[in-house]
Protein 1
Amino acid sequence: MSYIENENNEAHEAIRDSEDSSDFMKRFVVVPGETIIEGEDYLPGEGTRREGSKIVSSKFGLAEIAGRVIKLIPIFGAFIARRNNVVIGRVTDITYSGWLVDIDSSTSGFLPIDESPRFVNRNEMDQYLAIGDVIAAKIWSVKTKGIDLTLKGKGLGKLEGGFIFRVIPSRVPRVIGREGSMVNLIKDKTGCNITVGQNGWIWIRGETIDAEIKARKAIELVSEKVHVGGLTDKIEAWFMEEK
Amino acid sequence: MSKEYKRSDGRKNNQLRPIVAKVGIIPNADGSAMFAFGGTIAIAAVYGPRQLHPQHMQNPSTGILRCNYDLLSFSVYDRKKPGPSRRSNEISKVTEWALAPALDLKEFPAQVVDVQIYILQADAGTRTAGINAASMALAHAGLPMKDLICSVAVGKNDKHLIVDLTKEEEDYEEGEGATDFAMAKLANHDELTLLQMDGKIQPNIVKDALKLGSEACKEVYEAQKKALKEVVNGGEEK
Amino acid sequence: MSGMEMSNLTIETLDRMFADKKRFDSRGLLDLRNIEVTYDVSDKAEGSARIKMGKTDVVVGIKLQVGEPYPDSPEKGNLMVSGDLLPLASPRFESGPPGFEAIELPRLVDRAIRESGMIKFEDLVIEKGKVWTIIIDIYPINDDGNLIDASTICALAALKSAVFPEIDKEGKIDYEKKTDKKLPLSKDILPLSFSFFKLGNSIILDPTREEEEACESRVTFGISKWNSQYMLNSCQKKGEAPFTSEEIEKIMEIITKKFDEVSKKLKNFL
């Protein structure tokens, strides 16, 4: 199955469009093997393929016809790791050369000792990151054998306090919103620190327990609504009611 | 082959039992579904793609599909003792072969996609109901698939070709007796992925049997599509 | 769904939350989730039920078999409780021989029911040397915590709905024909199970999977009412963190209230 390579932005674009409700764009649910559209001029985007004169879906998701490239927006499914993704993971083991990290991906994550933000002595590795600790990391290489992580970068590092929980990875663009509009709204309304991992794991730390509980509820609400427009307004209204 | 044949439950030769299909019944799973042909009820859960352990089982050039099919002990009149039986082992394997052609496993090197199928209530056609449930669950899990897989049991009672046999029809003894021909295919492609048969059937009517089955598969496909789309169109999932 | 294990920071946050009497789903520490019981999971079983407690989903089936009594109880029928943690229900469960959790679950349900005296084993005798065995099979379909308590209620419901199959003239069971004769169960005895989980100094009931994984230990009690008197029928502690005797006394005060609360809720379903 060949398709045009696409960056993570694809899903973000989808969110932008849903907030705009353009007339020229058609979006509908398709199952694998279903014909999306027929015509030689169209190009198959990721998640679709060409079969003769038809563009056919390769996944269960939302097909989008807006221009020449036919897109498929996944609604469910496991996290597909990509370079530069920010992910949240849990340390599962310490080896001589780094930390093994569970990033809830089909390949395991590894943080080399050199990729910690400051110098860490080999015999003090567990004092910096122990088994069960949580990090916000960036993926810097994806191989069959494993995924390499780094903590060098803004907003990355060991996470302290708060809690982590999971949403379906394909909902992450919704949770973030157009240019961060949704997650920023929730941060404003609750006063919480929130880091959203592309792997579906989210970290929240707030001043009070009530704020943390509210932030989580808001995020879960957003992630459950798949095909709904005007979501930012709806969540604003929800916060008003919750007072 | 006679056109008029009275089936004990009043169905026509080409009529399936009432289908019930539902997606998203197991929140913990990456994908899940339930599929019933009349009194035969199957549930399926998909976990994956995920890491395969132990490491030596990993295949660096391709992913693996692992299927496990079994009956719950109270799904049959004579209680089935827990634990895999030879029959469930065989069905697990043919189910894997029936589903794999729909997936591109080369996209998941060294990884595994686990499919779990259990029968809550058995009244013939369990492997076909299981495949139909698993096919929906795989799509629900967001896996890249060529197509959905549809499965029905075609059969013969004496000379009459029928579709979706009940237990009673599987035990038919008059004339040429009962033939049970389980099949599965890609919904929109002429690719048969499961073929299993027991009984007596002349080679020259096999093509009629396959045609009957393929037609019946269309109804299965419509039910699968509807169940999948219902999960989204409510505006909320699960 | 993820097989990711509980993280340190989430455990600490849950500890603080419970200490403040708060939970993510806004329940009180001792509040149970919504319970829903349905029947007829399989018409091939003599009785069957399905429970949904929040997202926890369990099915239980009852099968009856005829056999010989145990040598030390010739005038009594038998009970066998079996089950499996199907890999279907959680990324944590694996195929293969049962792990400790899979072995423990049916055993705890067995003791809660058996020791309550609800089943009148003498009435399971068909004739001399021939008795009924009641087999309870428990299968979680989705594990979102508190499988033991959910399974006990589900087993109870399945038992109450079960009927004997017909025995034909030759003494052989005809499972395809059901009688309308219910199992010999005492109407007054209702065995339930309550598992109290501990994290830090807090004690909670009916945890979600997330909460259960954060907790350090658990004590499960089987309880029923007998001659209008509350009776504990079984008890098992799991995990390394100890309970203080004060905590156990507090649990004893709570458990009778919870028993009444849940019995009342279940009246709609049983």
Protein 2
Amino acid sequence: MFMAYLLWGFVAGCGLFMGGASAIQLARSGFDLVVAANAVVYLGCAVYGFPRLVRLIRK
Amino acid sequence: MPTHSWFELSMRGLHVAMVGAWLLFDFVVYWLHFKIKDANAPMDERLERARVMHGIDTVVAYLFFLTLPVGIVLCWVTDTPLFTTGWLNWKHLMYGLIVVSAIVLVPISGTSLRNLKAIKAGAPNVPELNAQIKRDMNWAMPWVFLIWILITAMIVISVFNAKCPHCNNFILR
């Protein structure tokens, strides 16, 4: 159970942190394909992981 | 050597060691999986290997989780803001793809140990449980290979962009 919390917490947290950082960098320095790909992948992870983390906590 | 450099050097060493151990343990898990999915192998041996594989997988998971924070601390120590360096952006993207692979692998990670324990306990549907182990392990393989390719690419990128902390020149270029 601890591993599930750790995994979904990590997916949501790391997705939010890295996705947020790449989005901020895009806003500051203009478009860059690799940074944009980072934002898509990490924010996608956050969007996918966050509901699962919430469901796990509420269970 | 100043304290800052010692800390930076330690973090670099830790980062490298973690990625090296991650890849090495992944190879061990790969080697173990052949016997586990072989329905003709002795039951006790399969179960023992599944237990070992599960333990190593847990260590791999911790290494995977800790690699990113250690890398972020390294960025902070070397005054390198995230997403401002081309090669680092590629590394972050590859790590993100590994996170995606991990999400795919999670639902099938416990199948072998769970099913083998059920078979050992006398479950009636042994062929079905064995087929499930084989199917899940074969489904995981492309994702495992993708992770290896990404880790190897990340190591190569890092090695060729490593700079001397004193003279700031590329070490291998």
